[in-house]
Design goal:
- It is built from 22 helices and 18 strands.
- By secondary structure, the protein is α/β, with parallel strands linked by helices.
- Strand 5 (187-194) and strand 6 (197-205) form a beta hairpin.
- Strands 12-11-13-14-10-15-18 form a seven-stranded mixed β-sheet, with helices on both faces.
Length: 547
């Protein structure tokens, strides 16, 4: 069965030229390795290796390879890869690379070579003996012995190390925030999350996928023998841009394990001025960061940029005369001059316990990564009431729904009214590529027409696509920020138990702009599109805009 699967192409070629009886004997005695299979076919057909190469090339519309006299300089394909897959580089240009191979349908080699070179891969046919002799002469390895188990493992390990390194390098180059590696239909699929959306990058044959998973587990210090429970780990590497931490998560799924690697770049913590906030919201956030006590709560779903914004905000006030402490799960960005605590539930270090001990350390500013339970909520609120400035996050849809969320966690209206200094909500929308976006002369799409109807104005630009933005029309993301400064009027309304609609009406009269209002301004100034804002905000875009 293995021969039929691996050498089906050879069986098909030979079958047409042999009698049934001879072919049946040929099929039964076909060897498992490629050089012997070629020899077996030559003997059965009574032809030479070069004649068989021509037959294979003709059958599969390929060229017969003429091996070069010198080795091509190709830094992206190490000798170990050439050796493992028995290929020789024949020709190369900016878009395509041609390899000599004795195996016209080596899907594993095709996948690996395509990924390593980022080019279209073509094969030309050469006999396995010619390729072996060429590799023996031109590669730096002292010996090429595919029959040696130790040699095979070493070569395989070298290839997998190279592949994992290349995945991380490409993710950095593509500005990916996450790498997803998962089983699908007997293969391993790699996707990058770029500007909030997943993009398929490549696929690997199942054996390669399994070894990539083992490599990721090994370097992230995860138990490589356990594939039936979720695990977490971390990888730390240095790049030419600075230190890079990758937070690794494994999850048993149907068909194998899914791996997600989140790229956390310490040098990615930018100042608030660099993050494309609208001027009004930027000024409000900066003013809130001057407070000496109270609590600022940032809301939004996972991946909305809450942590990034709060880290940037903390950098604004990170001076030698302030004691700043964070408690996070996990610490995503290392910041000099700030004491950062990693939650470790397995060791008993929860948000609640860490926060209790932090308060004994005489801090001025405390960042609590997320309020998840009533104990943490109560300690954070009371810390804000006793002279500390606290920043934290919760998962709610908008700024004002932080109030009922805290109430659900057992915080009274009176405590919220006395402690809250600010509420915020954030989303991220993709930013139009400045090199290819086009001006809109008239609203053409259904969403553009709806925008024009609701606002009375025409959107400014729409996405196009170019090489700079990988044909997506977008490059980077910009935040939509909704900030509610809790003044005396709003605090009194909270204390009196007003509902969220009533609270929001008060806030709007005080000049608060919603997420949708922020999106509209970005659409009208040409930073993003109606389609992108609708993708992120949905029907709330129309409800809020029409008010």
């Amino acid at each position: 069965m293995m021969n039929q699967f691996t050498f089906g192409w050879l069986l098909k070629l030979v079958k047409n030229e042999l009698t049934s009886a001879v072919y049946e004997d040929f099929e039964k005695t076909l060897p498992d390795d490629l050089p012997s299979a070629w020899d077996h076919a030559c003997s059965a057909l009574q032809i030479s290796m070069s004649e068989l190469a021509q037959k294979i090339a003709t059958e599969f519309s390929l060229d017969v390879a003429k091996l070069p006299t010198t080795k091509a300089e190709m830094s992206d394909v190490p000798d170990s890869v050439l050796e493992k897959y028995r290929v020789v580089i024949l020709d190369e240009n900016d878009n395509q690379i041609v390899f000599a191979s004795a195996f016209p349908y080596d899907q594993e080699a095709f996948s690996i070579l395509t990924f390593l070179t980022d080019k279209h891969v073509e094969f030309a046919i050469s006999s396995p003996i010619e390729i072996k002799d060429w590799l023996s002469k031109h590669l730096s390895h002292q010996t090429i012995d595919s029959s040696s188990p130790q040699s095979s493992v070493t070569i395989k390990s070298s290839v997998i190390v190279r592949l994992v390194d290349k995945l991380i390098q490409q993710a950095l180059r593509d500005r990916a925030s996450d790498i997803h590696i998962e089983p699908l239909s007997g293969e391993g699929v790699v996707r990058f999350r770029i500007d909030g959306l997943l993009h398929k990058i490549t696929t690997f044959p199942w054996p390669v996928f399994k070894h990539i998973g083992q490599r990721i587990k090994a370097i992230s210090r995860i138990d490589v023998t356990n594939s039936i429970v979720p695990q977490d780990g971390q990888i730390h590497i240095n790049t030419n841009q600075g230190a890079l931490d990758l937070r690794v998560s494994t999850l048993p799924v149907k068909g194998g394990e899914k791996f997600v690697l989140r790229l956390l770049q310490s040098y990615a913590v930018r100042s608030l001025d660099e993050q494309n906030f609208l001027p009004r919201e930027l000024q409000q956030l900066k003013e809130l960061m001057t407070r000496q006590k109270g609590i600022l709560v940032m809301s939004g779903p996972t991946g909305s940029g809450k942590t990034t914004t709060l880290n940037s905000a903390i950098q604004e006030i990170n001076t030698i005369d302030r004691c700043i402490v964070t408690v996070e799960d996990p610490v995503e960005y290392e910041m000099e001059g700030i004491a950062q605590v990693d939650v470790n539930v397995a060791q008993g270090l929860t948000f609640e316990k860490a926060l209790r001990h932090i308060l004994r350390q005489d801090p001025d500013v405390i960042l609590v990564g997320e309020i998840r339970d009533s104990e943490t909520a109560e300690i954070a609120i009371r810390a804000a009431l006793t002279g500390h400035f606290v920043l934290t996050t919760v998962h709610t849809n908008d700024a004002m729904t932080v109030i009922p969320r805290l109430k659900d966690l057992g915080i009274s209206n009176a405590l919220m009214a006395d402690s809250l200094t600010g509420l915020a909500a954030q989303r991220l929308v993709r930013k139009l590529c400045t090199k290819c976006s086009t001006l809109i002369q008239s609203a053409d799409s259904q969403l553009e027409q709806e925008f024009a109807r609701v606002t009375g104005k025409t959107p400014k630009r729409r996405a196009s696509g170019c090489d700079s933005c990988s044909q997506t029309g977008f490059l980077g993301r910009i935040p939509l920020l909704e900030i509610v400064v809790v003044d005396e009027l709003l605090a009194d309304a909270i204390r009196n138990g007003e509902n969220t609609n009533q609270l929001m009406e008060i806030a709007k009269r005080q000049g608060v702009r919603t997420l949708s209002a922020s999106a509209v301004e970005h659409i009208l100034n040409g930073s993003t599109t109606v389609e992108e804002a609708f993708r992120v905000l949905g029907k709330d875009l129309w409800v809020e805009t029409s008010n």
